[in-house]
Every structure is written in C-alpha cells, then in structure tokens.
Write a structure and sequence with these properties.
By secondary structure, the protein is mainly alpha-helical. It contains 3 helices and 2 strands; from the N terminus they run αββαα. Strands 1-2 form a two-stranded antiparallel sheet.
C-alpha cells in the first residue's frame, strides 16, 4: 500500500469578494446617533426645572414635585440608559417581528387562496370524473379490444 499523498483539488480560481464596509459604517453611525441622543437627553433632563411630575392615583396625589432637574447625575444617567436600552430593544423587536409577521400573513393568504380556489376546482374535477366515468369505461374497453391480445408463451410451453 502506498502512503496517502497530499494533492490539490482542481478547482477554478475564485477571486476574493470585494468587502463592502457598509455594515461597519452603519454600526458606527448608529452608535454615534445613540451617543448624541444620550447627550441630548441628559442635557434636556438638566434644562427641565419647570416640568415637575405629579403622580395621582384615584384622585389622591401620591407624589408631587418630582423635579427632573433636581435628580443626581447618577439618576439622570440611569434614566438616559433606560431610554436608550428601550430604543435599542424596540429597534430589534421591530426588525425581527416585522418580517416574521409579513411571512405569517403571506402564508395565511396563500392557504386562504388555495382553500377558496382549490377546493371548488377539486369538487368540479370529482364531479366531472363521476360524470365521465361511463365514457371512460367504454373507451377503456374499446382500447383493449382494438389493441389485440398479447400472447405470451406460458411456462409449460417453453420447455
């Protein structure tokens, strides 16, 4: 036995595909946009002293005067982070849910179309088959009669 030798497969040369950096640029632009939004939200929280929140439940004021400008910087950063996280989650959910929803709608419409058009067509085909069965039977018998009997030698005659 000969030891196995290394050989190259004969495959035509395929030049490497040109890389398009669009994905990286879009990611960088998205991150820059999120950073700009975070800074704008942080500044807006600082500039909102005249907008206090009042929490009222069933006519009773639970809390009055929750002023966003009076929050500590850590609380403001937490609010900014929560808003940005909610935006990122909403973006991911929309990009996943929208195509799945469109696919489900397309499948349901296809099934409805098949049920609406396919069932009546099958019923018509079944009725035509039942109505045409005597003609088909006569045609089959006529074909057998005209074809002639094929004579095959029996096992006893072969010898």
């Amino acid at each position: 036995m000969n030891p196995p030798s290394m050989s190259r497969a004969l495959v035509p040369y395929q030049p490497p595909r040109a890389r398009r950096p669009w994905g990286r640029w879009l990611l960088v632009l998205t991150l820059l946009g999120l950073l700009a939004g975070a800074i704008a939200l942080y500044v807006a929280l600082d500039l909102a002293p005249a907008l206090p929140f009042h929490v009222i439940v069933d006519g009773d004021e639970i809390s009055s005067g929750i002023d966003l400008a009076a929050l500590s910087p850590a609380n403001k950063l937490a609010i900014v982070g929560a808003v940005l996280l909610a935006l990122v989650i909403a973006t991911l959910v929309v990009t996943v849910v929208l195509p799945v929803t469109l696919l489900v709608v397309a499948v349901v419409l296809l099934l409805v179309l098949v049920a609406v058009l396919g069932a009546p067509l099958l019923a018509v085909a079944a009725v035509l088959a039942v109505l045409a069965s005597p003609l088909l039977l006569i045609g089959g018998l006529f074909w057998l009669a005209l074809r002639g009997a094929r004579r095959t030698p029996s096992a006893t005659m072969r010898g």
